[in-house]
Amino acid sequence: MKIPVIILSGFLGSGKTTLLLTLLKESKARGLNPGVVMNELGKRDVDGYILQEHTGTSVEKLLDGCVCCSRKDELPGSLNALLARRPDMIFIELTGVADPEEIAKSLLEPSFSERLALHYTVTLLDAENMLEYNSRFSADKQLVRTLRKQISGADLIIVNKSDLVEPETLWKIEKAVRKYNAESEIVFTHYSEINVAPLLAGITARTSRTAAAQRSSRSINGSVLKRMNAGQPHGATAVHEPRLEAEPSYSQVAAVTLTFPQAEDSGIYREQLEGFFREWGGSLLRAKGHVRLRGQAEVQLVQFAGNRASWEPSRYPGLPYVVFIGLHLDEQQLTERWSALFG
Ligand SMILES: Nc1nc2c(ncn2[C@@H]2O[C@H](COP(=O)(O)OP(=O)(O)OP(=O)(O)O)[C@@H](O)[C@H]2O)c(=O)[nH]1
């Protein structure tokens, strides 16, 4: 019996981990044993920690690069490690700059095609920022192409963060999406809230499994899924095609991880860190990490996405850090400015 795989793709900060948390909670409520492969561009595993803290799920982490290109060779090891734990399904959360079609192709390779079946590819879009992507990233042609492939390769497109835009923007997004994907269902959400039942339909616990997982046509937020990919994933090539080195899915996005000085009073003020994020203008695409605020004992999880910062308490036990992900980020300049904050 093949294990169903759900790929979560979408640009940085679009809401993939938010959706994955819901999917994991729902899977567990159904008595399923989910496995997760979490890929992060940065060297630290912010999202994997969040998942473990909130759902207790064991996560295979692939850090410091993209599993569709620079870290492609590491995917089999992670999948094998998960398979050894006998999951009922596998979620693969990609980095924001990954091409989901490359992962779909990997699942077709002989070592996995007997054991894994692509169940869904879901792409999340950030409603507040997605219309600007083409002009903003025009210098990184690979990235523009990857963002299109995230749309064209999806079975379900979730236009998330719709609370942050006017209805007209949602119509414009729908029109833009239809240029690259004419068929798949589009849903508009905030905090990635969808009826996840159709995504999980047909997935049963190993112990009670009697038939292969089937896709369902039940409604996601009131509308029926239009495309059921019963066959090969989009863009999938023949299994026996000679394996080519994957082209990078981006060229000018980089991640830098910065830590805090270890002195007792070395915390940072909230406004100070938010000001630091904004200092980098459009070149800082995403930041996330666990931070100790000055004068506070508790650690905070900070998220900076789409030029908005949010904070929540964290139980992260390690040394505080922040991962910065940006376009043309100058690591040396970033590090120097960071050190100056504590000078
Ligand atoms: N206002 C608003 N914020 C949201 C929504 N969905 C998610 N967020 C917030 O946006 C931030 C990024 O969400 P994530 O789910 O981590 O996004 P992601 O796609 O996993 O991000 P990366 O892993 O960096 O690619 C978090 O602070 C979320 O709480 C939404 O619909 N509206």
Question: Describe it for me?
Answer:
Belongs to the SIMIBI class G3E GTPase family. ZNG1 subfamily. This protein is of the alpha/beta class and 343 residues long. It folds into two domains: 206 residues, P-loop containing nucleotide triphosphate hydrolases (Rossmann fold), CATH 3.40.50; 89 residues, 2-Layer Sandwich (Hypothetical Protein Yjia, Chain: A,domain 2), CATH 3.30.1220.10. 29% of the residues lie in helices and 23% in strands. Strand 9 and strand 10 form a beta hairpin. Helix 1 runs parallel beside helix 2. The protein is globular, with a radius of gyration of 20 Å. Bound molecules: guanosine-5'-triphosphate. Guanosine-5'-triphosphate binds next to helix 1 and strand 10.
Output the keywords:
single chain, 343 residues, alpha/beta, Hypothetical Protein Yjia, Chain: A,domain 2, 11 helices, 12 strands, 29% helix
